[in-house]
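Lecture notes, continued. The same structure-token format from the folding unit now serves as the input rather than the output. Read the line below as a description of shape only.
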């Protein structure tokens, strides 16, 4: 009995002694229990990742190790407790309870000190990601981390499919074409060229086509990146357009774009679709069945020189009367058919779009009157019926996406607007407003949205714009 009693007393004394001599450890344990570790889904390079978080003094801190693992960085802890993280060319060092981190040997300040909870270091995610060379953004609903190097600039872009875009930039030696992932901005060089036409994406998104200065036509398989010459015909080929089934290319032939021609990819043969001796056709549009065509005819201004004056004076008069573009329609399926002139007015006409079935043509009409606004106009393929579809706001751009039409319009002092137009009824619906720095709207057949703004390409993700080039 005495031995058992002594053992109990000894155990109680040991416990009291531990409590009395280790107040710091007891306080740390209490503090660790007071801070609750949670989890939040971060979008890391377009992939959802669960990252542990804590809230300290009203600020959300994220697990250093979880972020390191998510982006593929390396982590090492020195004997003195310094956490060393390496990612690419960047080395970041930090310590718990410190409001200073070093980035490649240079000190940087944190607004809130790093904190250790349950042997895990937590830090301000924005400052940490920036120190590693990435970008961080967050709102009340989500947080995202991007560490992929983005392409510098974007001059031209078109959707290849719902997940990838073709982006082109020019330089001193020619043009570079890239494939850019719509979710992450990751890019790869597809083609470096000079004196070539723009790359035209096939309807199935599997290949692109282009012509060179000698008239040769090439296609590139986007899965293998293999380029193949499909024609040796040396005629000038302007405005290549794919047939819907991907078997042919249509184009305007000749230095004056006088002929509508067709190139069969299977054997490289070229045939004439329309040769009416009318020069300066432009903006070729082809129906889904490949038999109906819409295009502009541009007349050259009349230039008159005064024969009484010396040639060196270069004194000429230019008369542009009647040179406004006019829209023509041609149905090649009707034997002996001739092109039909659909418009005759003096307004400028831009952004020509032919309906898939060839039943009508949509375009933006712009009057020379400075007070007027760009209007969406639709004309049937006989030219007998013309309708102003949208004139509520100044229309800057018209683009077709699947069965819908989309407009980029003026809106306010610092914003533009995007409208969806039902091409069958003409009913309009406001989709969203955007910055007035948006200069071009890019829409896929599945209504994926992208835009060019201030030389950068952005895509719409859940109603928010995300830059995928710098």
């Amino acid at each position: 009995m005495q031995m058992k009693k002594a053992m109990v007393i000894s155990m109680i004394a040991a416990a009291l002694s531990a409590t009395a001599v280790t107040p710091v450890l007891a306080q740390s344990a209490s503090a660790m229990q007071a801070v609750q570790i949670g989890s939040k889904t971060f979008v890391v390079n377009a992939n959802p990742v669960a990252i542990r978080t804590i809230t300290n003094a009203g600020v959300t801190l994220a697990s250093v190790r979880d972020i390191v693992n998510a982006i593929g960085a390396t982590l090492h802890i020195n004997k003195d407790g310094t956490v060393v993280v390496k990612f690419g060319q960047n080395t970041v060092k930090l310590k718990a309870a410190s409001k200073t981190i070093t980035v490649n040997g240079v000190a940087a300040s944190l607004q809130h000190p790093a904190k250790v909870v349950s042997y895990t270091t937590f830090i301000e995610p924005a400052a940490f990601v920036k120190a590693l060379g990435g970008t961080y953004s967050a709102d009340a609903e989500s947080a995202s981390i991007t560490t992929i190097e983005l392409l510098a600039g974007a001059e031209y872009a078109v959707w290849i499919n719902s997940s990838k875009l073709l982006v082109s930039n020019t330089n001193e030696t020619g043009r570079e074409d890239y494939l850019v992932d719509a979710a992450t901005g990751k890019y790869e060089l597809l083609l470096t060229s000079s004196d070539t036409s723009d790359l035209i994406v096939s309807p199935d998104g599997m290949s692109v086509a282009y012509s060179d200065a000698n008239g040769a036509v090439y296609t590139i398989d986007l899965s293998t990146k293999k380029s193949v010459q499909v024609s040796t015909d040396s005629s000038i080929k302007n405005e290549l357009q794919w047939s819907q089934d991907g078997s042919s290319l249509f184009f305007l032939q000749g230095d004056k774009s006088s002929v509508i021609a067709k190139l069969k990819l299977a054997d490289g043969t070229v045939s004439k679709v329309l040769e009416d001796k009318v020069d300066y056709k432009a903006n070729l549009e082809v129906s889904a069945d490949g038999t109906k065509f819409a295009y502009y005819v541009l007349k050259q201004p009349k230039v008159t020189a005064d024969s009484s004056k010396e040639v060196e004076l270069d004194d000429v008069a230019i008369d542009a009367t009647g040179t406004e573009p006019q829209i023509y329609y041609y149905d090649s399926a009707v034997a002996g058919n001739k092109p039909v002139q659909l418009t005759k007015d003096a307004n400028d006409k831009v952004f020509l779009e032919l309906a898939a079935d060839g039943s009508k043509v949509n375009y933006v009409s712009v009057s020379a009157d400075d007070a007027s606004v760009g209007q969406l106009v639709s004309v049937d393929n006989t030219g007998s019926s013309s309708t102003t579809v949208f004139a509520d706001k100044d229309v800057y751009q018209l683009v077709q996406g699947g069965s819908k039409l989309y407009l980029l319009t003026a809106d306010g002092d610092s914003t533009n607007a995007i409208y969806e137009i039902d091409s069958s009824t003409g009913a309009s619906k406001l989709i969203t407003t955007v910055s007035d720095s948006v200069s071009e709207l890019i829409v896929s057949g599945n209504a994926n949205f992208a835009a060019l703004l201030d030389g950068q390409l952005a895509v719409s993700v859940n109603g928010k714009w995300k830059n995928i080039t710098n």
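Point for the exam: The longest helix spans residues 2-21.
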